[in-house]
Amino acid sequence: MNYEELIASSVREVPPSGIRKFFDIASELKDVISMSVGEPDFVTPWNIRQAAINSIELGETHYTSNSGTIRLRELIKRYLSERFAVEYGIDQMLVTVGASEALDLAFRALVEPGDEVLIPAPSYVSYEPSVRFSHGIPVAVPTREKDGFVMKPEEIEKLITEKTKLMVIPYPNNPTGAVLDKEDISALKDIALKHDLFVIADEIYAELTYGRRHISFAEGFEDRTLLINGFSKAFAMTGWRLGYAAGPKPVIAAMLKIHQYSMLCASIMSQRAGEEALINEMNKDYSQITDMLRNYNRRRVYLVDSLREMGYPCYEPKGAFYVFPNITPSGLTSEEFCTRLLLKHHVACVPGTAFGKNGEGYIRCSYATSLESIREAVSRIKTFTEELKA
Amino acid sequence: MDIKKEIMAILRDDALTPHSQIARMLGITEEEVSGIIGELEKERIILKYEALINTEALGEDAPAEAMIEIKVEPKLDFGYEDIARRIYEFPEVRSLYLMSGRYDFSIRVEAKTMKEISKFVWEKLAVLEGVRSTETTFLMRKYKENGALMKKETKQSRLVVSP
């Protein structure tokens, strides 16, 4: 059988993830310090784990409504409103199996073959392939260190065609740690209005900002935004696979159509755990999140300052848990830098190129790992840097 | 954000955090940080900086510790203050709290051996004027103290690389 022809061209043509290669090398090595992880090192808080155990003990082992439990959606509604001043009703929401499913559903529900989708570059690895799987055309909007890795209106204007339909706005950004301020948001909203674009705002890192609270793109822009968020980062719940989308009713209804024929619903125990996660934080003035954030901030400052001391210019990340240093002073490409650092000093980082072509010259270092490990990684990167100079 | 509160929270996590780092974390100057910390010390809000010792790891060298519940007869005019002072002046007394409930004070006592603590109770504490009764419970094992675990938790493994 010709398997090459068997595989759909939309899938065949998408290259394998640039992260995969590093995963394979790193798995072979011993005492690797991993700064290449995109998930919190914290274990899910105990109260949340306990809620899931209770749910299982109570025999809650059935399907839930396709949209997600009413209680969870009501809590999400309250959470979005009190935390981000974003107003969506529970009939404008869909609970999904991770924010990733929500993204996939959004592209499948909205993209027609040939539609163009604007995506900042560098960005999270999934947007481009997901658009391609939906037969759309991803259009990279280059972002630069000097602009704080924020999409510039004039850059976007140049790329807009009559085929442009969607704009993905993923801030706080993985891998750069960039956030949008009020002015950035209002400029981007103007563009969306002027060109009649719909926005997919992936705000999975909304709780992880340093210095000031996150401003949601959906605030006051609910009717033109599909807001995607989840429990993975804010509540250290990656393995639970629990996310959600909130947006205009027709968009949610279209996504629900696909969801009910594919995933059906998110697992009930994860949804119960999610309910506990939200209610507990709401009742305690978000103190658990604040503690986690303080911990990340400590590591962020340490890592940024250490990298700068080694001579790597480093944009000050204001969100998420990544530092995106400029490694061009090393004279190496991102890929060479990461490969050598991994093979020789057993520190795993991800080359910026894995996040799109604008990532050349940068590497992504995740500080979602203990301060102790970060200190050791810093000392190894320092040795590596000195070896390069010698 | 309440800067004072935030600085206290940072120092409670790690009292050795350099002022320069706190400044970076909060986006203020190092002088401002030092100024606020100086004030907190002066106002006796920050009382001291101490290392949290894992006595479980000391083995035989670990001190003996006990919690003692004390019932007292508070004095007219002085209330509990006077008797409290006469208890906390003993260096063996590490902490002293006035409690609601069946008894009045709860103290934590530390000494080299259990025998020493026993002696402290019958020779010094129980005979104090105003002390009606004591109930000593010896601490057998520590799991968690001031938010820190005595035993290192085995980390659940994560993927080495993830998007």
For this entry, give a set of tags.
heterodimer, A: 390 residues, alpha/beta, Aspartate Aminotransferase, domain 1, Aspartate Aminotransferase, domain 2, 7-stranded mixed sheet, 3-stranded antiparallel sheet, 14 helices, 43% helix, B: 163 residues, alpha+beta, Arc Repressor Mutant, subunit A, Alpha-Beta Plaits, 4-stranded antiparallel sheet, two-stranded antiparallel ribbon, 5 helices, 6 strands, 32% helix
Description:
The complex is a heterodimer of chains A (390) and B (163). Chain A is of the alpha/beta class and 390 residues long. Chain A has two domains: 3-43 and 287-389, Aspartate Aminotransferase, domain 1 (Alpha-Beta Complex); 46-283, Type I PLP-dependent aspartate aminotransferase-like (Major domain) (Aspartate Aminotransferase, domain 2, 3-Layer(aba) Sandwich), CATH 3.40.640. Chain A is 43% helix and 13% strand. Chain A is built from 14 helices and twelve strands. In chain A, strands 2-8-7-6-5-3-4 form a seven-stranded mixed β-sheet, sandwiched between helices. Chain B is an alpha+beta fold. Chain B folds into two domains: 3-42, Arc Repressor Mutant, subunit A, CATH 1.10.10; 55-141, Lrp/AsnC effector binding domain/regulation of amino acid metabolism (RAM) domain (Alpha-Beta Plaits, 2-Layer Sandwich). In chain B, 32% of the residues lie in helices and 21% in strands. A four-stranded antiparallel β-sheet of chain B has the order 2-3-1-4. In chain B, β5 (144-145) and β6 (148-149) form a beta hairpin. In chain B, α2 packs across α3. Classes of the chains: A alpha/beta (390), B alpha+beta (163). The interface between A and B is medium-sized, with 30 and 18 residues.
